[in-house]
Amino acid sequence: MRIGGTRSTLAGGVRRIEADIAWEDAVRPPSRIFFEISGSLAADASPDANAFLAGAAIPAMLAGERRIAIDGEICPRLRDGIAAVEGFFRSWNVRRPPLVLEPDGGFRPPWPADTPRAALLLSGGLDSLFTLQENRRRLPIGHPSSFRDAVRVRHLMFPVDSSPERRAHIEKRSENAVARIASESRLGVTAVSTNVTQLHDDFETYMRFSHGSVLACIGLTLAGSATEVTISASHDLATGLRSWGSHPLLDPQWSTAAVAIRHEGIAASRLAKAAAIAPWNTALASLYVCESGPFAGDDVNCGRCEKCVRTRIDLLLAGGIEFSPTFPREPVLPSMISGMPGIPGFRILGYYWRELAAAARRKGRPDLAAAIEARIEGADAAREWQADVGWKGALRRVDRRFFGGILLGARRRFFGL
Amino acid sequence: MKIGAVRRESRNGDESVSAKIEWEDADRVPVDLRCSFRGGDRPSGDPNVFLIATFFPALEAGERRIAVEGAICPLLRDGLRAAAAVIGAWHGANRAVPVIAPSEGFHPGDPTSVAGEGIYLSGGLDSLDLLLSRGAGLPREHPAAVRRAIFAANFTCHPEAAKVAELSARAHRAAAAMASACDLPLTVIEGNLLELHADFAFFSRISHGSVLGAMAQLFSGRLIAVALAASDDARSGLGPWGSHPLLDPLFGTSALRFVHDGIGASRAGKARRTGPTELARRHLFVCDNPNPGDPLPNCGRCEKCLRTMTELLVAGALAESETFPRDVEPERIRELPGVPPFRSLRYYWAPLAAAAQVAGRRDLADAIRTRLDEERRARSWHAERGWKGRLRRLDRRRLGGRLLALRRGLGGDQAP
Question: What residues of B are in contact with residue A140 (Cβ under 8 Å)?
Answer without folding.
Answer: 108
